[in-house]
Structures are given as C-alpha cells and as structure tokens.
C-alpha cells in the first residue's frame, strides 16, 4: 500500500524501508502514559515479514507535547533503524504520514519494564527471609494478574542473568559509539522469554570525536541515575552510562527500590562529591557490590567498560554465585 502522495509532501521522516501503513495497525489499549508520551498495545498485520497479526507496542506523543518530545521520538526512530542486538529493543516500523500522529512501532515486551517486573516479583519474594529490605505496597494491575502472567520469585542467578544481558546490550551500543543517557530499570523491557532489552532511546545521542555529548539546555534529568560529571558539566559518555548501570545493578538487587532512599535529589550532588555512595544492600554479594562501586568511581576513566563488566558477570554466573 503506497501512502497518499499528498501526505508525503514535506514529510522528511518518511522512510520506505520502515514505513508501515496505518490501516494495518489496530490500537488496543494504553499500557503506559507519561506527561507527553503514550505507549499502546496494538496488533499489526503482516509486519516485518511476519504473516498475520503480531502484538506490537506503539509509542506516540500526546497532543499537548511540544517539539522537544516529538524530536526525541523521531531521534529514537532514526537511531533504532541502525541497531540490531538481542538485548536492545527492536524497531518494527513507523507511521509518519501526515494524516495521523507519528507512531513508532517496536516489539512488544510481555512483562513490561524491568522496574515493574522486579516490583511485581516482590509479592512472591516477601516470604523469602531477608530478601526484600523494603516491602512497599505494590498491586498487580489488570494487565498483569498473577493468573494471566507467570511471575516467579527472582533469585540471585536471575539478577546476574539480567545484569549480564543488559551489559551485553550496552556493550553493543558503546561499540557503536552510542551513549544512552537514561539507563535505568524503568527503561529496560522484559520479553516473554524473560530477556532484558535496553529501550527508551529518546535521550540517546550519537557521540563523535571526544566521545562526549554536551547537553545544551537543562531538560528532564534523571538525577539519581546520573554520574557526577553529567550533573555538574552535562558531560555524557559511555563512562556515565556505566555509572547508571551501577545504579541499575542496585535496582536489581533491591527488586526495584528507588535509589538513594530518603535522600532528596537536590542534595545528591554534594553528597556524591563528598564521597558518599549507597551501602551494600542486605542480600547483595560482596562481589556484585564491588562491581557497582567500581561503576561509581569519581574518575570516569577508573570505571570499568561494558565489555569487561560483561566478562565479570559471565564469570560470576559460571561460578554460580
Ligand atoms: O512497566 P510497564 O508496564 O512497561 O509500564 C511501562 C510503560 O509502557 C511506559 O513506558 C510499558 N512499555 C513501554 N514499552 C513497551 C513495550 N515495547 N512492550 C510492552 N510494554 C511497554 C512499560
């Protein structure tokens, strides 16, 4: 189906390789909603060579969104075209014709974000002595009742496996010289096979030359995941992604607790400068805590690379600890 010619005039986002006709997309329901963006569950007919209907996720922006949000989604689209890795979310297509809103079509992750998956697992983990340090109340929503989804208690091997998968996805991105800038459990998806995929590339930027992206204006800033040099000088590199990965490890071990509990985001920079770091969570091995701490080295050059982290996590998995 060739989109109406009139809709293509001035449409610089149109890319025949990825364009998907709107009339082959059936939107089902909203599965995530932010201030400016929305994620919907949908069915797509005959998408990327798959015959028949496939369940997909559609990302779009709300009417009240400004140009920054639209630009972020478009930059996510352009970036996803060039990535292909089992631990990075897959682009399936996009609807860019001007007879409707911009839709980014990505693979559907049955278990949603890693953050919500970890928190749901708590219901089943609370009886395991000492496993959950923080038993905040959390309810399953209608999309994920325990009868429709098999959520199992998470053990330390699962935590290592998830960490290893995320590290592999990030190794791939770092090799492509891509800096994610918003690596956090909320931006990692868990598929039906319980595979973690790095997602939400709205803030990702290509980095050239000195591997640093200097953010011009203060936008949305995920302070508790940010490296000190990002907080002070807006410097983002794969080494600042490593810092965020350390926070993700902490989120994993604590089954989705918000980092730096009880600490106000505005006080964090000073504390970090004074050398403050989060303590070892109760159920965390010294080995894994050493890894997260190495990600939080003040000097970016003293932090490990994703490649070496992948190897360390792999060795820990082999040893079975
Ligand atoms: O944790 P969740 O249920 O899973 O809530 C968030 C919400 O949308 C906002 O990001 C969910 N979400 C985002 N992308 C996808 C996807 N590709 N497949 C399934 N759920 C998704 C996420």
Key terms for this structure?
11 strands; alpha+beta; binds 2',3'- cyclic AMP; five-stranded antiparallel β-sheet; 321 residues
Structural class: alpha+beta
CA distance, first residue to last residue: 54 Å
Major pleated sheet: 5 strands, antiparallel
- H and E order: HEEEHEEHHEEEEEHEHHHH
The proportion of residues forming helix, as a percent range, comes to 25-40%
Number of strands: 11
Can you walk me through this structure?
The protein has 321 residues and is α+β, with helices and mostly antiparallel strands. It is 33% helix and 17% strand. The strands form four sheets. Strands 1-2-3-5-4 form a five-stranded antiparallel sheet, with helices on one face. A two-stranded antiparallel ribbon has the order 6-9. About 7% of the residues have low confidence. 2',3'- cyclic AMP binds next to strand 1. Its main location: membrane. One of its GO terms (molecular function) is transmembrane receptor protein tyrosine kinase activity. One of its GO terms (cellular component) is receptor complex. It is found in: Membrane.
């Amino acid at each position: 189906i060739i989109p109406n010619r009139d809709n293509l005039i001035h449409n610089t986002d149109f890319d025949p390789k990825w364009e998907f006709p709107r009339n082959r997309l059936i939107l089902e329901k909203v599965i995530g909603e932010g201030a400016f963006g929305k994620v919907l569950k949908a069915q797509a007919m005959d998408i990327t060579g798959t015959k028949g209907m496939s369940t997909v996720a559609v990302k779009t922006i709300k009417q009240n969104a400004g140009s920054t949000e639209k630009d972020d989604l478009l930059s996510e689209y352009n970036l996803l075209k060039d990535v292909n890795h089992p631990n990075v979310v897959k682009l399936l297509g996009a609807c860019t014709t001007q007879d409707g809103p911009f839709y980014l079509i990505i693979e559907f992750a049955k278990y949603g974000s890693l953050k919500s998956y970890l928190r749901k697992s708590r219901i089943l983990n609370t009886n395991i002595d000492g496993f959950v340090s923080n038993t905040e109340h959390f309810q399953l929503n209608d999309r994920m009742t325990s009868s429709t989804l098999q959520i199992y208690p998470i053990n330390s091997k699962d935590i290592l496996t998830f960490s290893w998968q995320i590290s592999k996805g990030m190794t791939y991105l770092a090799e492509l010289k891509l800096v994610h800038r918003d690596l956090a459990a909320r931006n990692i998806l868990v598929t039906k096979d319980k595979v973690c995929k790095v997602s939400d590339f709205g803030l990702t930027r290509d980095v050239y030359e000195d591997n640093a992206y200097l953010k011009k204006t203060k936008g949305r800033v995920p302070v508790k995941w940010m490296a000190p040099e990002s907080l002070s000088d807006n410097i983002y590199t794969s080494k600042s992604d490593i810092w965020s990965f350390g926070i993700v490890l902490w989120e994993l071990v604590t089954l989705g607790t918000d980092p730096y509990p009880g600490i106000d985001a505005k006080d964090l920079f000073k504390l970090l400068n004074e050398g403050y770091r989060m303590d070892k969570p109760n159920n965390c091995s010294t080995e894994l805590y050493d890894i997260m701490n190495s990600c939080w080295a003040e000097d970016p050059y003293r932090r490990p690379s994703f490649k070496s982290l992948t190897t360390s996590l792999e060795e820990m998995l082999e040893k079975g600890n």
